[in-house]
Every structure is written in C-alpha cells, then in structure tokens.
Design goal:
- Two copies of one chain form a homodimer.
- In chain A, the strands form three sheets. A seven-stranded mixed beta sheet of chain A has the order 2-8-7-6-5-3-4, with helices on both faces. In chain A, strands 9-10-13-12 form a four-stranded antiparallel beta sheet, covered by helices on one side. A two-stranded parallel ribbon of chain A has the order 1-11.
- Chain A is built from 14 helices and 13 strands.
- Chain A is an alpha/beta fold.
- In chain A, helix 8 links the parallel strand 5 and strand 6.
- Chain A is about 40% helix and about 10% strand.
- Chains A and B meet through helix 2, helix 3, helix 5, helix 6 and helix 10 of A and helix 2, helix 3, helix 5, helix 6 and helix 10 of B.
Chain lengths: ~425, ~425
C-alpha cells in the first residue's frame, strides 16, 4: 500500500472489469510499456494485420482494379456502422472520407455558404489548432467576422459565454465535444438548443469523444459533425475521418470541393457538377483504401464492447487517476488541468506542471510510460478503456510520482519542443 | 503467325526487354490474367506487403504514437524522391498529401486568389471529371468566368485553340499532361510558354503521366502540378497524391484549407494561422499513413527502372498495340481513339467501338483480359511498362479480336454502366 490507495484496489477493479478480455484483442508488443496516449493514436487491434494483408494481397494483388466494385462504398458502410454503434445517427448520415481538417473545411464552408445573410462565425479560442486555422481561413476568405470565445484552459467553454455571443448574425458555431487539451466535455444537446434559438448551426468535432463517450447526434438535434478515427476508434495512424450531416439538411448544403465522388451517375462523367442528394455529396474522390480498410476490424471491437461499457470503464479509470493525482502528485507541484469529476470530461485528463515537457520525456525514456505533452505546460494522460488496465494507471502514476520526486529530468534542448 | 504479326515478334521484344526482370518484382496472382489497366490501378509490388507489415506491426503496433517522429515528414521525403526521379523538380518542391482532387482544389484556389485582377479560368472540356468539377466549383464560388476549351475526344487539346483563348484576363489554365481517355500527351514546355506570355499560370494534372512519360517540371518552367500515385507509380488503391509548387512561387501563394500541418512551429499551436514559407504550407493535416507507406516500395521500383527506360518500353508496347489494332481490329469495327504515333500519347491508348462496354465486360469475364471502359464508347488499354510483357499485349489483342469477331458479348443491363 502506498499513500492511501493500495495497488490491490486497482487489481480489484481489473478483476471486476467486464471489458478486461478486450485487451487481448490488441497487439501488446511490450507488456512493460504503459501506453496512456490512446487519445492520440490508439493501439493496433490484433485482427488488423491479417485484415490488411487480405486487402493488400487478395483484393489489390489478386483482384486488382476489379476490387473497386466492393471498395467504392466502403466509406459509406463504415459511416453507417459509426452512426448505429458509436455516434447515434441514422443510416445515410455519416460517411468516412478525407481528413478531419478537410471534412471540417467542407462542412463549415457548406454551412457558411448556406447562410448568406449572416456575418459571424463563433469558435472556441482554445480549440484544436487545425480547427481554428481552418475556420479562420474560411472566415477571412468570405469576409466574415471570426469571434473566438475565451474558454478556460482547464475547465472548457462556459455556456453562458457562448449564449451571450449568440445572436442572429451568427452563421456557424464550431466546437469540439471533448477538448483536446483539458478533456472538458460539452453538453451537446444544450449547445445545439442555444444555437437553434438564434438560427445558427453548430459543427461539432468529435475526435476526442468518439469511442470514449456516448454521442447522440440524432437525439440532441445535431446537424453537422466531423471527427477522426485514429484515437479511441483505433483505426491507425492518419486513418480517414468521418463527417455527419443530418439527413434533412443534406440536399440544401453544397460543399466547396466539388469532386467526382459526389457526382450523380459518377461514371457517366457528365459535363457539369450535379451532386447526389444524399451524404455522398460531401465526398470528394478516391479514398486511401489501405488506411480505410484498417478502420474495419477496429470498429468491430468498439461495436462489441459497446460505448456505454467503454464509458463506464473510462469513468472508473478517470476517477482512479484523479484520486492518485490528489494523494501523490498534488504535493509534488502538479495541478489537475481538467474538469472534475470524470463525468465532466472525455477519457483523457491533463495535469499542469511547470516541467511538464521534461517529465513527459523522462517518463517515456526511463520509466516506460507513454503519455504526451501539450503546450504550454500540460501532461496529457489518455487511458483508452478498451485496452488499459487499472493497474497500469496505478503503476504509471507511481512512476510519474517517482520521476517528479527526484527532479532529475531529461533536460529540454532548445527547439526540440516542436517535434514532441 | 497470325495476320501479318507473328507472336514470335512479341517474344523477341520480350527477350530484348531490359525491364523484363521487373515483372518478377510484382505480385502476379494469376499468371493467365492479362492486366492492361495499370493506368487505373497499378499492380501490387512484391515488396509492399512486407513493408506494410513492418509499418503496421512494428511502427504502429510496437512504436505507437512515438513513431510519428519518423512518419511526420514522410510525405516530404516521398515528394523529394518524386522530384528527383520522376517529375524533374527540385528538392522541397513536391510533397505527398491528400487526394489529387483536394490538392487540385488547394493549388487552383491559391493561384486564383493570387491573381485578383483576372476573371477567367481555362480548362479542357474533356478533362477528367473531378478536375472539371473542382475548377467549376472554384470559379463559381469566386464569380469567375469558366472557359472550357473544346478538345478533340481522340486527339487532345489543340494548342492553337488554347493560344486563341489566352489573354490577360486568364488567371489560371488547368490541364492534364496526358488525357485520361485518349492518352493524348501535351507539350508541357509549349503550354507553359504560351501561358507565360499573358501572365497566366498553368496547373498540371500529371496523374496519367507520372511514371509513364518523362516529366520535366523544372526545365519546362512549370509552376503548379498535382497527380496521383496509384496508376503507373503503383502506390495502391487511393494512395495519397502529390502536389508541386515551384520554389520561387511558394511563399506568395496561400492555399484555402488552413490546416495545422502547414503551420510554422506546428506543435506550438499558436493562435493564428501562420504558414511556413516552404512546400509544407500546402499541407493540411495528418496523412493516411498506411496508404502513404505503400508508396515507398513502389517508388523504389520506378527509381530503379528509370523513367527513360520505362518510356522507351512504353513506346514499343504502344507501337505493337497500334500495329495489331491496324491489322486485326480495324476490320472488326474498331477505330483508334488516341493520337498516333505512340510518341504523342502516354502509356495508354483508347479504341472506339460502338459495343465497347459489352466487349470490355466479355473480355474480363471470358477471356481473362482486364482493360477498362470509358464513356461513351471507348475501350481503354493501359499496358504498364514495368510489368507488362509484349506477348501479353499480343495475346490480349488476339483475345480481343476473338471476342469482337464472334459478336456474342455479354449484354448490357440497364443502369449497370455507372458502376463499371
């Protein structure tokens, strides 16, 4: 027993974990390595290498161009599975394609062009950089006013602040359901409702939420969303993203990148762009098939575990991390930089420490704990419930305590921060 | 001997082929299948499955998020190799990212925004559909006049027509170096020069040219180009595309999709978009890594064979196909729908026949020859020089003659054309 929370407590949680068996369905190349960066790149599902080999050797190598008959709507099939099992949408409302940034660009562009009388875009000043830059570019190109809401770095966006900024000039609100840094979880239903009262649209980024917390796009009246598949969905590095457009809205929106995968009778190759009425109108072109294929077996695991059970375990993991932070880390100069309790955030949490960067490097190099650093001074810890044991969180926090206590971190070379 | 061209002539060409050994470096799953659709999806290089397994199992499975240290500039490294060995550009002028359509959108958008006083975009009315649609969308969004040059379906774009359309109102000309349908090859140097005389920019699509014909972006004064990697470069289904921006032009162009991969000090995550001055400013976000990885071993083959030798063999393959068409197919109602001689086109050719669709289907289903169909009545034949034998072209044309002669094709079900 150490400092009030015995390792046995974590062992008991592991023993009672209904998702414990899922860990075996991932590749654990180094059992000693504690991986708490599932919120950045999820682990490799054990079924993925064989599935990829099949796609590469049989479908590409053997079937060659003929395999496109079965590949061409794969993004739509994955989208329907995401809709049913992960994001609470209807069939035909989600499709997998491009990157999160490109999808954000397409949907934000479409929404802005569909609201010609309105001159303001609202966003969170602390949103993930690519979201901020994409929206900034669109606003500048269209001569719109960009209003960046000053959100709390640790606590997330205050809905009163959002409410006070919403008026009938607002065309679009772009927000992340779960903050990439603090993990703060917004109330999707409440935000959608606030925006609706002034006739503004909300475009959600679900990257840090999908596969970690229940999302109910249909039930909360969400109209637009995008997100990535390589975090809690374990689709692999840079796996294609998804986009969601509420069915009733699809035909009236026209996205700016007019590609042939959105075209009616695509292979008739007609002279003018004439997009299909459905979700495929938001597609552009040929998807990166191998990266797309890797999403398939990964999604199966999330479907089988079920987001409700994943969330239930995620809350327990989060509570354990909070408790250990309180007893072990706060005395060493750490401060929680995430909302508490865990119900108010996604599956990751942030810790503030002035030496966060050095601690992160030292943990990885000397203590076999991988988490990550985010500017300016945050250690980000993302225990993905599908494969993270409670004892791993306990051990990782114990190692973190050791590293922080001895204060002999790896030093920070000038300029190195930019590649971490 | 059949109809004047003995099979032995093809056998002799195979025996003398300096690239013959390269066929063994591809997966030939069914040796009886003749694959003449390398212009649509190139074959699987034999080294690719192992390379992918390494990236998946070791780098993703073992290295996890830490592998991004080595991955993050992979698109740039591939770009530099394309520049040196395939496209005649300088280091730092090409990067692999996104899809051809998205890259076209980015570069066309950047070029248009950099020419505010000009109101016209020129393109080829017969260009590949996605190019036409993307440019149409950009022109419409910016209120520009879109001028579609009536190109010859078989012979390609007449440069006199282009010259007569070029004036000082033209901001941008978008053209494919090799036509996707007829294979017509444009004179890049001449076009660049014509455009330069009126101060217009040219954006080239190199999809059907790269890895098939020598391209000299630097030497011809090309400023902008995009293209795909899954045809003659054998990068795999939907493998990421590349984009080229001449070094002197990079800092003055700003592309419309402001993603964090273009940002200076990317991981500082600063408040405002402030793109790097170099080629990375045209990047958007996290690339689909597995699809990107597959380009690596494929590119090695092209580098080792060398584009000059690939082109030399491509010309001989084309001449053989032309000769066989003359003696065997013309009497059966076929007409060449490509420029002749082969020097005037890329590595594929088109044949016109009123029953082209049925013939294409029958060839694949009953004669083990895969080529493809393009509206309205074209059979497209793309013998990729790296792995196609001269005897395969001879055998395929013989089988094509048989199928066409007996006139008992598979019938064409209503509506099926759209998925071929």
């Amino acid at each position: 027993m150490e400092g009030g929370i015995p390792r046995a407590a974590a062992e008991e949680l592991d023993a009672a974990d209904p998702l414990a068996e899922f860990r075996e369905r991932f590749v654990i190349a180094d059992p000693e390595l504690i991986y708490l960066d599932g919120n950045s790149l999820g682990r490799l599902p054990a079924a993925t290498p064989d599935r990829l080999r099949e796609v590469v050797e049989e479908s590409w190598g053997g079937g060659l161009v003929r395999s496109w008959q079965g590949w061409i709507d794969w993004g739509g099939r994955l989208g329907d599975r995401l809709a049913e099992h992960v994001l609470g949408a209807r069939a035909g409302e989600i499709v997998v394609s491009d990157s999160t940034s490109v999808n954000l660009y397409k949907l934000a562009g479409a929404a802005l062009d569909a609201a010609p009388g309105r001159g303001t875009v609202l966003m969170d000043a602390e949103d993930f950089p690519t979201n901020r830059y994409v929206v900034q570019g669109l606003a500048e190109q269209r001569g719109l006013r960009l209003c960046r809401l000053a959100s709390d770095l640790d606590g997330g966006l205050d809905l009163d602040l959002l409410r006070s900024a919403l008026d009938r000039d607002v065309a679009l609100v772009v927000l992340s359901l779960v903050s990439y840094r603090s993990g703060a979880l917004l109330d999707m239903a409440r935000v959608n409702e606030l925006a609706r009262t002034v006739g503004a649209r909300v475009l959600w980024d679900l990257s840090h939420a999908a596969g970690a917390v229940p999302v109910d796009l249909a039930g909360t009246g969400a109209e637009l969303a995008v997100g990535c598949t390589y975090k809690y969905l374990n689709g692999g590095p840079g796996s294609p993203a998804y986009l969601y457009v509420r069915r009733e809205l699809q035909a009236e929106l026209r996205q700016p990148v007019w590609g042939w995968f959105g075209q009616r009778e695509q292979f008739q190759m007609g002279p003018d762009y004439d997009p299909v009425p459905g979700i495929e109108r938001f597609l552009v072109s040929t998807p990166p098939l191998l990266s797309l294929a890797a999403i398939d077996p990964a999604l199966t695991l999330v479907e089988q575990a079920g987001v409700a059970r994943i969330r239930a375990k995620g809350l327990l993991l989060g509570r354990l991390a909070d408790d250990l932070t309180n007893v072990w880390l706060t005395p060493l100069g750490f401060r929680s930089a995430s909302p508490r309790p865990p119900e108010q955030r996604g599956s990751h949490l942030s810790l503030h420490h002035p030496d966060a960067w050095q601690i992160c490097q030292t943990l990885a190099a000397e203590a076999k704990v991988v988490c990550d650093y985010r500017v300016p001074d945050r250690l980000r810890i993302g225990p993905s419930p599908l494969y993270t044991r409670f004892t791993e969180v306990w051990d990782a926090m114990a190692r973190l305590r050791e590293v922080a206590a001895r204060r002999t971190y790896l030093s920070r070379p000038a300029g190195l921060a930019r590649v971490t």
